[in-house]
C-alpha cells in the first residue's frame, strides 16, 4: 500500500526498541512530510558519525570516542571501587545520581543459559584482568532480574576468594525492572544501601 | 557526560514525534551497542533514499515516489468521491479499512489562526482546482479537533455552492483524538455514518 521506499523506512524504525508499527509509521511520515532535507541530513550524519567514532573503552568496555573513556581517564575518580553493570545505559543512569565516584565495568549482557549466553560471551575475563592491589570493592549493579542476579552471584564467587569485597546494590530498584528506568534518588539509595554478597 | 557524538545522536532522536529523552537514549545505545554496522548502514540509506525519492502527488498531494500516486493513477478507484484529510498518515489509516474506493486530497495541515495557518498555507486551492463534473461528493475526514472541524466547515462552505455534496465522517472516532490512532472498524463506521455538513 505504501510506496516501497516508505515501507522500507517504516520497517527500519520498527526494529528499534520501544517502537511499534504505528510509532514507526508516525516517525516515517514526520521525516518525509515535516522535516527539512537539511534536518534529515543532520540526522543520518549523526547516526553514521556516532556509529563510526564510538568504540569500547579498552579498560571498562563502556562506549567512548577515544581509546580510554572519560571516566577511566579521569584523575578525580576513586580507582579502588569498580561498579559492574550490564550495559552502557546503566553507566549513564548511575552517573546521573552525581554521587558515585568510582570506576565502572560494562559486561554487555548478563548470563542467560536459556539464550546460550555463557561467561565467555560477556566481559567477565576483562573484569578479572583489572583486579590488582588498588581495588578494594566490586559493586554488582546488574539488573535485579533472574539473569542479572545470577550474573552477580557468579562474578561474586569468582572475586571473593581474591580477598576483594563484593557488594550488591540494595533493593530499592523495583524487582524485575530495568536499571535505566529508575529515577536518580532510587538509584542513589540503592547504591548507599549496598551490602556484602556472600 | 556522554561523548559528543552520542549526545548529538540522542538529540537527533529526541526531535521525533513520541520520542522523549529516555527513549532517545535507549534507541541511541541500541544503535551503538547492538546493531551491526551493516544494519545501521541499511537504516541511514533507507532514510536518505525515502527522503530523496518521495514527493507530493501532483493530483492529491499525498506522498508518492512517482509524479502521480498509486491511488490517483488506479483505474479501480471511484473518481466521483474525494476524501479530504489533514496528512498522508490519514490516507493510510483509511486505506487499511479496505472499504473506501474513492480518491483522496491531502491538505498537509489544518486551519489554525493561533499558529498563523491560513487557507493559503494548506492545499485548499489545489482541491478546488480538482472539482469538475465528475465529482459528486467530498468527504471531510479532517481530525475531530477544533482546528480539524473548523477546516472542514471552511471547505464545505466553499464547495457547497458549486452543487457538490459535502459530507463529514461520523463521530465514532473519539473526539479530540487523532485519526491515525483509530482502529479499522471505528474508521469504517465513521465513513459509513457520514452525513451532509451544511
Brief overview:
Two copies of one chain form a homodimer. With 198 residues, the first copy, chain A, is α/β, with parallel strands linked by helices.
- Tell the overall outline of chain A: elongated
**What fraction strand of chain A?**
5-15%
Low-confidence stretches of chain A: none
Structural class of chain A: alpha/beta
Give the biggest beta sheet of chain A. 5 strands, mixed
Number of strands of chain A: 7
- N-to-C span of chain A: 59 Å
Q: What is the number of helical segments of chain A per DSSP (H or I, 4+ residues)?
A: 8
Integer-rounded radius of gyration of chain A: 20 Å
Mean pLDDT of chain A: 89
- How are the strands ordered across the major sheet of chain A? 4-3-5-6-7
Estimate the helix proportion of chain A, in percent. 40-55%
Largest interface, chains and sizes:
A-B, 56 and 55 residues
H-E string of chain A: HHHEEHEHEHEHEHE
Question: Oligomer, anyone?
Answer: homodimer
Amino acid at each position: 500500500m505504501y510506496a516501497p521506499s516508505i515501507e522500507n523506512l517504516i520497517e527500519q524504525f520498527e526494529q528499534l526498541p520501544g517502537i511499534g508499527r504505528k510509532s514507526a509509521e508516525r516517525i516515517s511520515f514526520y521525516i518525509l512530510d515535516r522535516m527539512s532535507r537539511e534536518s534529515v541530513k543532520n540526522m543520518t550524519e549523526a547516526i553514521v558519525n556516532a556509529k563510526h567514532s564510538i568504540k569500547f573503552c579498552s579498560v571498562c568496555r563502556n562506549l567512548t570516542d577515544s581509546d580510554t573513556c572519560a571516566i577511566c581517564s579521569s584523575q578525580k575518580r576513586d580507582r579502588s571501587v569498580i561498579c559492574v553493570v550490564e550495559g552502557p545505559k546503566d553507566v549513564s543512569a548511575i552517573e546521573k545520581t552525581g554521587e558515585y565516584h568510582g570506576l565502572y565495568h560494562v559486561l554487555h549482557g548478563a548470563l542467560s543459559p536459556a539464550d546460550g549466553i555463557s561467561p565467555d560471551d560477556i566481559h567477565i575475563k576483562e573484569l578479572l584482568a583489572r583486579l590488582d592491589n588498588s581495588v578494594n570493592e566490586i559493586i554488582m549493579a546488574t539488573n535485579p532480574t533472574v539473569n542479572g542476579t545470577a550474573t552477580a552471584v557468579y562474578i561474586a564467587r569468582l572475586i571473593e576468594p581474591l580477598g576483594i569485597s563484593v557488594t550488591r546494590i540494595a533493593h530499592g530498584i523495583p524487582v524485575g525492572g530495568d536499571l535505566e528506568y529508575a529515577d536518580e534518588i532510587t538509584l542513589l539509595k540503592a547504591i548507599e544501601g549496598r551490602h556484602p554478597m556472600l
